[in-house]
Fold:
Amino acid sequence: MKDREIPPQPHGTPQTGSKRRVLVIHNPTAGWRRRLHLSQVLHHLAEHGCPVTVRRTRGPGDAESLARVASEADWDVVVAAGGDGTINEVANGLAGKDIPLAVIPLGTANVLAEEIGMPKSPRQVARVISEAKPRPIHLGIANGRLFLLMAGVGFDAKVVAHVDPAFKRRFGRLAYVLVSLAGLFRFSHSEYHVTVDGETYRAASAIIANGRYYGGRFSCAPLARLTDPRLHVCLFQRSGPLRAMRYALWLLLGRLDRLPDFRVVPGRRIKVEGASGDPVQADGDIIARAPLTAASASQAIRLLMPGSSQVPYAPGE
Structure:
């Protein structure tokens, strides 16, 4: 695949700050708005004097492979330009390296961008990439694969497993809504035994959260933070279509914590047993089949995120 280097534009005045060598790993997506957004971010990076190379993916696994071979001698930052699945691949490829990760959100939900308060403006996104100081964040690991945001089994993982990529490209978030509605009566309703740091619970679905947001700016683990080494296990304890609809409604209303059959348990080591063979999702992609073993990962990654002069990320909240 071809590389494209974007030199500083002759008509632009380079701004102050370091001229970081930027590798952009881009997952091409349909839609002129996303292509325009990326083009504008690249233009502003050039104004900052940053030499940029864009490498495009051609299929699943490409983003991880490109990040894995990225050398600290060649790049000062690796940027994932795509959705949360692309970011997950790049993060797995960068694990063990000292190269910071940055994001240009181009996906359907862009949960990580919401989590860190990434600005919408292409100019401000470029500013974060070219000037922000990297901060270490903790990762989770599920069945051997790192995740930044969440992993889960149950209803949400079954929805992810049944969303066709072409259908998602065409309908965006609506694709998940439509598959969820169809799945209320089509999916089998499983029961899992979820063990968190030695304590076992029963649940119909479990989401292991590393951050506060889910599916956009909805929250099922409001106290979870990327800077906290603990994971927060969200337990949906009742099964059935009516209860699934009820959980979804209260999630949308931001009132999940008021339901007596929903609870959040913080911990570092999680095991989910039962319904062997059910799909396991991490950061919005299917990564394995149950049973699920998850934990706080020993690896951390450095992430470029907005500072106090933009949209603050409050790690201690």
Q: What stands out?
A: The first strand starts at residue 3 and ends at 6. Residues 4-17, 308-317 have pLDDT under 50 and may be disordered. Residues 32-47 form the longest helix (16 residues). The chain has nine helices and 19 strands.
